[in-house]
Design a protein that fits this description.
Among the domains are: 85 residues, no CATH class; 99 residues, no CATH class; 156 residues, no CATH class. It has 7 helices and 37 strands. Helix 4 packs across helix 5 and helix 6 runs antiparallel to helix 7. This is DUF342 domain-containing protein.
Length: 555
């Protein structure tokens, strides 16, 4: 048996849990007796709970004083915690607290174990009163005060018990509080839902009220079984929305009249009945051109769009959709005629051959459309077109790539790759693939050369003007010209350092091409064998493609 322990506490259930843990016994085997109860009081003048004498305490036990002075009570129990030996009385019950817990009722089952035949009625009454006080104290219901109805009901119940009539559930009032009179019922207003259209997403501004809980207004206030004064500050939060909020995007402001859930930033509302948040991520099942989601031409539109359509028979991004955003993530398929533009683009499904994508960084699982970006990662290229600075493709079933640097895992047939710096392929298992070094075939670089040439023309004119009117500016302008010419030369002569590497042996006829200028190219048809990296050797006017040693003389 566990040793008995004297404990002073406000929370008996917590104290018994600690006692059970310390003594390595189940909580169900723990019991207690109440040795002493200290009742503390606070009111509108004294905001801390204080011990009062019995006589002084009596002054606060009438309803008028409680309401006028905003009186609250709490109790500290001195108990003896122990391990159960034999359980003489075992009450089976539930407690109905009601709306405000002002008049809680114990509903006693006739299956309860009450050994009344061993005792005189007066002793049974004492046992029941003691047991009910233990139940009340354990549930933090005030004991010893406001319980005259409980005492009266218990006396009637004992007579009922000895008459053998306890065959149905019996209700016993545990506490007589003061029920507030409600002048205005509480209600919850979901303001953000008023902006909802056709089930689509909802955009809100910074500092916008999302949800408002209008607190009840009482004709007169109340007082409940836990010793709490009931007013609008107490506010019956069981009527409030019981939700979790994201503290980074939603804040709560509360006063006597209402509790407001307010957006911290501009963004899109996400509410699933459990959690409320606002961020710049749009989560949609699908997008069609008939549903207006966001303003694609809004310069401040720096949101993340996540489209997740799990029905494989439907496109996540429908036919003809045009969407511009900071980040776009599509978990399904992209339909015909659609245009996606983003800084970060990820498509886990496939792009339609008549679709277009624009991004700084793009990652596409299966690509059939036209992509223009800075860096691209493609899982499977299925006849699609890619314009980029750097491209990485895991596998290819045909298509076109235009980039400075290209890395390919495996290609079968009919792939055309145009690069200025490097092409690296692990395996070419088919035929009719073209690997060509030529910056002119890369629109990004061709446009850059045109831009540089236009800038050079402009700078030459400005140098002439500076020599006449601002000689001190000439050196700076000439430095700009020199820098642009170096950049132009690096692009135009990129073929000199470019390489084409195929790591495993070719298995058929494929084309290797190095373009020198508009009038000169070196072509080579591969055999089914392994090659060292293809590159050019330049010696005076002779340019040689190695390793096949094909030469071209330029005068």
């Amino acid at each position: 048996m566990a040793t008995k322990e004297l404990i002073k506490t406000k929370h008996i259930k917590d104290a018994l849990q600690r006692y059970a843990t310390d003594n390595l016994i189940p909580l169900s085997e723990c019991d207690f007796t109440i040795n002493k109860v200290d009742t503390l009081v606070k009111n509108a003048r004294n905001h801390e709970f204080e011990h009062y004498t019995k006589e002084r305490l009596e002054e606060y036990l009438n309803p008028e004083t409680i309401l006028n002075e905003h009186v609250e009570f709490t109790q500290i129990y001195t108990i003896t915690a122990m391990q159960k030996d034999t359980q003489e009385m075992d009450l089976l019950y539930t407690i109905d607290y009601g709306r405000y817990a002002t008049h809680p009722t114990l509903i006693l089952s006739p299956k309860s174990k009450i050994p009344y035949k061993r005792y005189a009625p007066s002793d049974t009454l004492k046992l029941l009163y003691r047991e009910l006080n233990k139940i009340k104290a354990a549930n933090e219901i005030l004991i010893g005060i406001f319980d005259e109805t409980m005492k009266t009901t218990l006396k009637k119940f004992v007579k009922y018990l000895y008459a053998g009539k306890f065959t149905k559930k019996v209700k016993i009032s545990l506490f007589e509080g003061i029920e507030p009179v409600v002048a205005r019922q509480s209600r919850v207003i979901f303001w953000f839902k008023e902006k909802e259209k056709e089930g689509m997403v909802i955009e809100v501004d910074k500092d916008e009220i999302l949800i408002e809980y209008k607190k009840p207004i009482y004709g007169h206030n109340g007082f409940n079984a836990h010793g709490k004064y009931i007013d609008t500050l107490y506010a019956q939060n069981n009527d409030d929305v019981n939700i979790e909020i994201d503290p980074k995007s939603v804040r709560i402001e509360e006063d006597n009249n209402s509790k407001r859930y307010i957006s911290i930033n501009k963004g899109y509302v996400h509410y699933d009945g459990v959690k409320l948040s606002v961020d710049n991520r749009l989560r949609l099942h699908e997008i069609s051109r008939n549903k207006h989601i966001i303003d694609s031409h809004d310069e401040d539109n720096n949101i993340d769009v996540i489209v997740a359509q799990h029905d494989v028979t439907k496109d996540s991004v429908g036919e003809g959709v045009e969407l511009v955003s900071e980040c776009i993530a599509v978990e399904g398929f992209v339909g015909a005629g659609s245009t996606l533009e983003a800084m970060q683009l990820e498509i886990k499904g496939a792009t339609h051959q008549d679709s277009k994508q624009f991004a700084k960084f793009a990652k596409i699982n299966r690509h059939k459309g036209t992509l223009r970006c800075h860096e691209a990662e493609i899982g499977l290229l299925e006849g699609g077109t890619v314009h980029a600075t750097k491209v990485k493709v895991e596998s290819s079933l045909g298509g076109q790539i235009y980039a400075q640097d290209v890395v390919i895992g495996h290609t079968k047939n009919n792939l055309k790759v145009y690069a200025s710096n490097s092409i690296t392929v692990r395996l070419v298992s088919g035929e009719d693939n073209l690997f060509q070094i030529n910056y002119r075939d890369i629109p990004i670089l061709d446009a850059k050369i045109q831009f540089i040439q236009e800038e050079l023309e402009d700078l030459k004119y400005r140098v002439d003007q500076a020599k006449r009117f601002q000689p001190q500016e000439v050196k700076l302008l000439e430095d700009e010209i020199a820098s642009l010419k170096i950049e132009e030369k690096k692009i135009v002569e990129s073929y000199k350092t470019a390489t084409i590497t195929v790591e495993q042996p070719f298995r058929g006829l494929n084309s290797i091409v190095f373009t020198i200028d508009k009038d000169h190219e070196i072509h080579y048809k591969t055999d089914a064998k392994a090659y060292l990296p293809f590159h050019l050797k330049i010696d005076d006017g002779t340019i040689t493609l190695l390793p096949p040693a094909i030469s071209l003389t330029i005068e």
